[in-house]
Amino acid sequence: MGTQPNIHVFGVRHLSPSGAWHLRRFLDQVRPKVVLIEGLADAEELIADITRKATKPPIAILAYTDSLPVRTLVYPLARYSPEYQALVWAKENDAKVEFIDLPSDIFLALQDVEEELRQKALQALKEKAEADAGSEDAEGDGGDDADGDTPTAEPGAPHSERGTPTADEEGGASRPSAPGVPQRAKPTSERGTPTADEEGGASRPSAPGVPQRAKPTSERGTPTADEEGGASRPSAPGVPQRAKLTSERGTPTADEEGGASRPSAPGVPQRAKLTSEEPDHTPEPTFSTYEEFARLAGENDYETYWERHFEHNLSEDAYRRASYEFGQSLRDLEQDAPRWRAENLVREAYMRRRIQQTIKSGVKPEKIVAVVGAFHAPVLSHEHPPMTDEELNSLRRRGSKLTLMPYSYFKLSSQSGYGAGNHAPAYFELMWEAMEHGDLPGLPSKYLSLIARHVRDDGTHRSTAEVIEGVRLATTLSAMKDGSAPTLADLRDAAITLIGHGELSTIKDAVARVDVGTAIGELPKGVSRTSIQSDFERELIRLKLEKYKTAVKQDLTLDLRENRRAKTDEGAFLDLNRSSFLHRLRLLEIGFAVPARSGQESVTWAEKWVVQWTPESEIALVEAVLLGETVELATGYKFRNKLELCTSIAEAAGLVRDACQCGLMQSMDLARHRLQHLATESSSFEAVAHADRELGMIARYGDVRKFDPAPLIPLIQELFVQGSLALYAASNCDNDAAKKLVRGMDDLNKVSLEYTDVVEEQLWIDSLQKLADSDDRNPLASGYACAILLERGLIANEDLAREVSRRISPGIPADLGAGWFEGLAGRNRYALLARQPLWEQLGEYVSGLEEDQFRRALVFLRRAFGGFSPHEKRQIAENLGQYWGVNEDEASEALSGPLTEQEEQTLQDLNEFNFDDI
């Protein structure tokens, strides 16, 4: 095997327009018979659909498990992805094309492994914490350690989420977790630093709390070519010369003599730096491998470094040679944990296996081109062994299925939380188009012209001269960095300076549109889809919602009433059917549409939604196929599961409402029976009141949603009686519980007002009166009951004055009196403002308080009046002024006039006073 010629390996960065441009020209030159691409091996059946003329990227391959718990894996492709262009080239030139990375069932099984390891790591940390706590208890007063050292994490302890970037971003596939599954870490670090495998294939970060998978240093642990020698390879264009590195404290690393440097502590991120004659003990921030490349090249960030040295270089074969050297440098410098290294070794061994199978099938190595991430490119030669049958059979698997889905540029951008190595996808498509038209020098003027156009569209004039000057400034900034063309960072700086006149806020929206864009992909009809995806598309067409399937948020207002001008039943109830469909998606947690406040809370026929299509919506839709073949069937299954797990009366009431809104009348009956059963076991006033309010609102939907509310009425009556009888006992509580109690009082009072002819209203009034008259119940609740009776016109002015006099007087503890008044002021403030005797009693109360009593009462009074508007507070002051003998005009003038120094000092003392000390 040692004399066997190697295949052509082209290392790329995923979503690299220059990589795609160079790759197509390399393929034209080599004219391979077989093109091997780093991608899910079992996704080859989707290649024909990916390369259809009607398919418009960005799109993604979505793999998902065929059993619960759901795991998903996404492999995105843009028009300028090297992998996508390789597929298109193969189709245009009748070459055979294959994906050669691990199949999806193995990748998805790795997620199970990650979750198991995460749980083990969490358990180990928990046990360690308990052991440490036990040892501290055992030591008692033994004092600190003699050396005073702080215990450090053991080798292999979980890295923080801001630790070393993950290794595999060059791969291409990133797997967002399914709803309810612990979120898998993002392919980029929290600080936006690209992960290590950004250059080409599948990106898989470790789960939170699990040691991050490391980037391999060498194949299966063997030294790389440069580790044994000592001579360093001359770097390709754009790759900084690899220097001899030392550890953070200046100590040479173990491999410093050989040429390649690696951190001394495996799995522990350490920032390497250039050697110097004197060791530097000054602490420095930790840099990722990518940041180190950028720093050595004199760039502020890795993205700018990559663009300046790789994307702009159109010299023949420069990209392939530079990316190969870059990948080798990454392998020499990688520092991550062994588990990630092991996974990459498995992937690379499998890719070599597929390469060897292709050669054994009779294809000459020189007629094979492998397109893989730059990180993997150096180890795909025949010098490294392929995976054996025994090794392949030993890998864990999860049953999986594959489908295609539209993707969006926003999802590809780092602004969405998932970078995939491309923070400005719309900009890089502009770059791809410029390369295709041989006009890369014209990219700066195109970019800045688009910025200016969007600014003008937003109503701010910008001249052509500013665009021209912006191009000159960007070119100058690039020249200062020895660049051949301005990078996106240079163009942004120029745009802010010339078009934004120094203010980013002026052009922020325009920059977002030009950098990220709103493009989403399209798939033609007949493309491989799951049954629920097809049903979703049919429903969008039937309900005329296709135009809302965009990456831009749109408002959708529905009128659920029958449209009597429509000629068909479908048209007459279009919005009602739309509402049921959107509520079904909501129940399935498919975020295509989110309910919004309509401003008409008491209106049952109006709904407002915010609609936006996202790749997450598509992923959630595909996952729902495990629940049912259609949206309706999946919703019914999900509803039954929720009903089985329902243990509270409030949750059951919510399920009744959900079933009604989803148009699942049979499910609504099941939920109603469940609610009735739970009601007999519930003793919570708040839960009963809330459930009764929910049922009352649902019954009001009857005419609009076309169902008979009669079966709900007996349950509304039963819950109303139960709540009315429970009020008095429930009001024997503290103030925290009383705040929940008053919300329940609101709910039951609304039911009483809306269903006067159905419920026993007098029973409710009697309960309120009993609570209002009681001195041994919570004062806040008692005052609130009095406020409801006052609102209903059941308390006369003289009775109110007498009650106020009884409740708030110097002989009553301040917290009880002021707390009762807080409850009284909790609703219908205009009714209170119109009753002068109340304010006379309050004035007498405040005037008669001693200093300590006043300070204590002030806590409750300030809280009671905190929600009043300035106009209402002014009216209160005028009422009190009238009681104290000041006419309205004088009181108004005094309130609007400036404060004296003494008054300002008094207010300041009150604001600085710590009422918690009372």
Shape: elongated
Count the beta strands.
14
The amount of beta strand, in percent, is: 5-15%
Radius of gyration: 35 Å
Strand order of the largest sheet: 1-10-2-5
| Major pleated sheet | 4 strands, parallel
Q: What is the average per-residue confidence, as pLDDT, rounded to a whole number?
A: 79
Distance between the termini: 87 Å
Number of helices: 37
Q: What structural category do the secondary elements indicate?
A: alpha/beta
Q: What are the low-pLDDT stretches, counting only 5+ consecutive residues below 50?
A: 142-283
The helicity comes to 40-55%
Task: Lay out the secondary structure.
Layout: E1 8-12, H1 17-30, E2 34-40, H2 47-50, E3 59-65, E4 72-77, H3 82-92, E5 96-101, H4 104-139, E6 171-174, E7 201-203, H5 225-228, E8 245-246, E9 273-274, H6 289-296, H7 302-311, H8 318-333, H9 338-360, E10 368-373, H10 389-393, E11 400-406, H11 409-412, H12 425-436, H13 443-457, H14 464-480, H15 488-499, H16 504-515, H17 531-542, E12 554-559, H18 569-572, H19 574-587, E13 593-596, E14 606-611, H20 615-623, H21 631-645, H22 649-662, H23 665-679, H24 685-700, H25 702-705, H26 713-730, H27 735-754, H28 761-773, H29 779-791, H30 797-807, H31 814-824, H32 829-833, H33 836-847, H34 851-865, H35 870-883, H36 888-896, H37 901-912
Parallel strand pairs: 1-10, 2-5, 2-10, 6-7
Antiparallel strand pairs: 3-4, 3-11, 8-9, 12-14, 13-14
Helix pairs in contact: 1-3, 1-12, 6-7, 13-14, 13-15, 13-16, 14-15, 15-16, 19-21, 21-22, 21-23, 22-23, 22-24, 24-26, 24-27, 26-27, 26-28, 27-29, 28-29, 29-31, 30-33, 31-34, 33-35, 35-36
